[in-house]
């Protein structure tokens, strides 16, 4: 049975800083965003100073520390930025770039997208950014209609392959809690229902297949180690449609946080890896780690070693911690 190391990481505003004078290209930022071919992106990135050196060095260190073969990313501006991050920063700390890079432009007004880095072949990819609530048969949240897009960013569907078998990933970044968790919860509930529908459209019997839903869901089922009430994750988890990996693999509830909110000093699990029921049964105790060495010192619950250069609030790898797990899967056989 194939095995891979899978991670998810919100990189926190992995965005370019263009030197427009040196580039000498009109509408340079928009033209970079329009690049959707990975081979083209490899030739474009050398023209621009795209990343903040201190933060992105730490971000790359945190990602390299996961040991991941495949990593789902959130808050990446475009394919050029992703390429530069992989070839300039990841390669430095991991010894080589991931190589396979996937990003499709989504719906976020800031231009932050979900993405994939993979050392394994990507055999299928599809963006669902333009899927509407009506097209998916999902009831829209208050204030929206069936003609509105179901995802605030995207749900990126990707198949990665190993040893002749393919595993399907659904990469998400749900609506933030800005404006209040309770007030924004209905949007996340609708997004979760839309993801569930995508899984059902892909698999006739979802519980009997191997798939993973992962990313930054901007909601939690426990905070500071204590269970909380309703969350925006209900359509995916409440009836066992998927299995949340962290409670499945990390017994100590106080050790499952992936995000520290400094303004009220709370620790919550906003980032999730959710396994199909069959995949969870195949992985009763997967090796799962949350990498916190890139966290700022303000996240005082973490008392372990940190990367050199970490500050009180900044620099840091991200305001999120990457989560990684080693997963065995049967998946589906690739045709010869």
User: What gross morphology would you assign?
Assistant: globular
Which CATH first-tier class would you pick? Alpha Beta
Number of domains: 1
Number of helices in the DSSP assignment: 10
Characterise the protein shown here.
Strand 12 and strand 13 (266-268) form a beta hairpin. Strands 5, 6, 7, 8, 11, 14 and 17 form a seven-stranded mixed β-sheet that branches. Strands 3-4-2-1-16-15 form a six-stranded mixed β-sheet. Helix 3 (38-44) packs across helix 5 and helix 4 (53-65) crosses helix 5. The protein has 336 residues and is of the alpha+beta class. The longest helix has 22 residues, at 181-202. The chain is 26% helix and 26% strand.
In short:
With about 325 residues, the protein is of the alpha+beta class.
